[in-house]
Amino acid sequence: MTADLVEVDGLAVEFPGAGGVRAVDGLSFTLAPGGALALVGESGSGKSTVAGALLGLHRGTGALTSGTVRVGGTDVGSASARELRALRGAVAAMVFQDPLSSLDPYYAIGDQIAEVYRVHTRASRRAAGARAVEVLDRVGIPGAARRARSRPHEFSGGMRQRALIAMALACEPRLLIADEPTTALDVTVQAQILDLLHELREEAGMGLLLVTHDVGVAAESVDEVLVMKEGRQVERGPVGEVLRSPAHPYTKALLAAVPRVEAGSGVPRGSGSGGSGAVPAPAPAPSPPPAPSSGAVQGGALLEVSGLRREFGRGRDRVVAVDGVDLAVRPGDTLGIVGESGSGKTTLGRLLVRLLDPTSGRVHYDGREIGGLSERALRPYRRELQMVFQDPVASLNPRRSIGESIADPLRAAGTLDEAGVRRRVREALERVGLDPDRYDGHPHEFSGGQRQRVGIARALVAEPRVIVCDEPVSALDVTTQAQIVELLRGVQRDLGLALVFIAHDLAVVRQISDRVAVMRQGRIVEQGPVDQVYGAPRDPYTRRLLAAVPTLDPDLARARRTARKEPVPL
Amino acid sequence: MIRFTLQRLGGAVLVLLALSVLVFGLIWLAPGDPAKLACGDRCSPAQIAQVRERLGLNDAVLTRYADFVRGIVAGRDYSTGTGVLRCDAPCLGLSYRSDRQVTEVILERLPATASLALGAMVIWLAVGVGAGLLSALRRGGVTERAVTVLTLAATGVPVFILGLLLLMIVCAYLRWLPFPSYVPLSQDPEQWAWNMLLPWLTLGLFESAKYARLTRASTLETLAEDHIRTFRAYGVGERAIVGRHALRGAVPPVIALSALDVGTMFGGAVLTESLFGIPGLGKTLIDGVRVIDLPVVTGVVLVMGAAVVLANVVADLLYAAADRRVVLS
């Protein structure tokens, strides 16, 4: 009857079992051929479940599905196994989030694409191999014929994602379903992948259903957005409209929580200033003010490193993770460190709190050189130099109560009696906004954001003077992320801490930092006050990073995409 | 790869050296007079003294150990009273009982042990991997339950009970086969196979249980991985998913464990060999212990150790070959 590519009507998916979850609850939408729709929502909103339902992937998993789903004319709910297989890959193809685990580690990439192609076309082995090379070439893999013989682990993250997209393209589907296709990637690579998706749509007239938690990614890629919360639609409309003037309070809150690189200052955006996505990007003005070029903050630095270097491995396998870094943090100051994966920022963070020994260089803390101290000599400093880790799940012992985990640094110091320890832990819990009576709760009883609060409490309880946070919010949803950033800011202000905030997300770093250092391949390419680095970046790499950050303004995104096209991206 | 192999082989030599010290020390500490044992019951004290001199038992223990190691590396000469007996490298000594070279005895017994181990491996790979795969694919069904019960039962039954049961049923009641007696492969391949059938089945079925469980676990693990979901989402049929992708992921641990097990069995599957009277290394060891033929015991233990150490190296190499992501270093 209609020519819609996707019709979803009253879709509900329930995962039975202990505390059975209704992941999707009465969702309806359509997607016209060649259209692009983003399902946007926080984790647990049911967006990925919808994507799976379009291909009937919940069949045989025990999930209860109701409502109708039609894709390219096939009723996914009632289709036979054979019809379903014909749909999958040929009519609608899915690009998964984690490109490494989504490919079979044992087979060459070209063979995996060829296998999918042969399933749907009965082409000869040779023809399928040729097709694999063709699509790999199309998605911009250099030397596709040779690289087709590589196994997934021999590809970089961005290349793997391209390979997955190539697999999706192999049978020329009419619908591409992309489930968080860029979440695992660095911003510059993310920009390339989003550009690629765009080109493919324009070229082949493919429909795109994008599933993402990142509003910016949606703004860059689609015509329409559907905001989901707890399995239901909250708001739906053209992307520009929804992002500029959201109608629903949830959408407003979501947008307000999104940190921005374009913001005029490091001041947090309160709720209500939500829709200011149209601020133009910083002009890459190459007019450097006479700012200090070395890392030294004039006077009063609590923690200062110079010529810091750290190598791993030896001989041919030697890697220089940190390569001559100069930095300084003052009490009451927040230093942001941004960089892409592999830039050495985590190693740097661990060197700063002396969890790692530097290969060479100086670590000056509170007027003393601690770079070369032995573990024993470092002990008095351990309490004052604390760290908050990225993964709040992995960095808490699941078998111990959170109170006990927080108490560890106190017990290690050994200066307080049992009652004193307990009192201090309760104070720390209160300070980070957790109920002190949950002292005896175990990590699994807490949400991701709460666990990160526990991690912060553990750092605070020892009354440190320096806290290094390594990607403290990258595992969290935007709204939670905003709360944690706010908490860190408050703690830092009240206690006058020197805070080092390490992240790959330029917007979050801008939000919290006073000064910022941009890291690349173990070196600091640029550092200075936040407004200067973001407003008038001097290093070309900084400019490239900033230009790759997704904007919330679809028009601006389009303009930037055109600009990016000029110098051909790798 | 080559560097890794050489390094590991170097390590193996060290392990074997340590093992030889241990065995040598244990035997030196053992009560009893080896010369008396070697000479027999009706020897006069003079004869015993002569034997002691001939075996070098009057030397200090360190000298004896040095002689022993030198014998392995370069060979050594024994005086027989009337002449000199040359024992070529690798010389593991002379048997107290027969005056035969231990190396010769071991080489003579090795084929029987090898036939048993390799044949059993074929059985456990076929039965164990097959059963494991089947139970992984028919999860929740009768097949799975049956396989689980059988594997548990097989693990619980000691190998000599299993062997006895097979002997009783197949040879005594059903009379499908005569009671097996070992026939060397070189003599009559057909007879060799028929006579080895029950030992193979005994050892193979016993080990199958372990392999069924391993295969089941690693297949289920692979089936739960993301890349399997990818191929399902691209319309690849279930048979190809299992045959090409799931099995491929399940195989490397099976191969690695097989290499280890075969290595251990090369040192002699003592119980099975004794039960079926297979003249392999295990039986040699038991016999050696019974008559306190110390050079034979030392030699066999060293060879067993060497087999296990080598099997470890081979297992690592096979694992790396099966999974190219593994970098050996």
From TrEMBL, chain A:
SMART domains: AAA. This is ABC transporter ATP-binding protein. Residues 6-255, 303-546 form the ABC transporter domain. Pfam families: ABC_tran, oligo_HPY. Belongs to the ABC transporter superfamily. Residues 265-298 are annotated as: Disordered. GO terms for molecular function: ATP binding; ATP hydrolysis activity. The keyword Amino-acid biosynthesis does not apply. It comes from the Bacteria. CDD domains: ABC_NikE_OppD_transporters. Residues 281-292 have a biased composition (Pro residues). InterPro entries: AAA+_ATPase, ABC_transp_ATP-bind, ABC_transporter-like_ATP-bd, ABC_transporter-like_CS, Oligopep_ABC_C, P-loop_NTPase. PROSITE patterns: ABC_TRANSPORTER_1, ABC_TRANSPORTER_2. GO terms for biological process: peptide transport; transmembrane transport. Residues 267-277 have a biased composition (Gly residues). Keywords: ATP-binding, Nucleotide-binding, Transport.
TrEMBL record, chain B:
GO terms for cellular component: plasma membrane. The keyword rRNA-binding does not apply. Coiled coil: none annotated. Its main location: membrane. Pfam families: BPD_transp_1, BPD_transp_1_N. It is a multi-pass membrane protein. It is found in: Cell membrane. Keywords: Cell membrane, Membrane, Transmembrane, Transmembrane helix, Transport. The chain crosses the membrane at residues 12-30, 116-137, 149-176, 192-209, 254-276, 296-319. The keyword Lipoprotein does not apply. One of its GO terms (biological process) is transmembrane transport. Residues 110-319 form the ABC transmembrane type-1 domain. InterPro entries: BPD_transp_1_N (IPR045621), MetI-like (IPR000515), MetI-like_sf (IPR035906). Gene3D superfamilies: MetI-like. PANTHER family: DIPEPTIDE TRANSPORT SYSTEM PERMEASE PROTEIN DPPB-RELATED. Belongs to the binding-protein-dependent transport system permease family. This is ABC transporter permease. It comes from Streptomyces jumonjinensis.
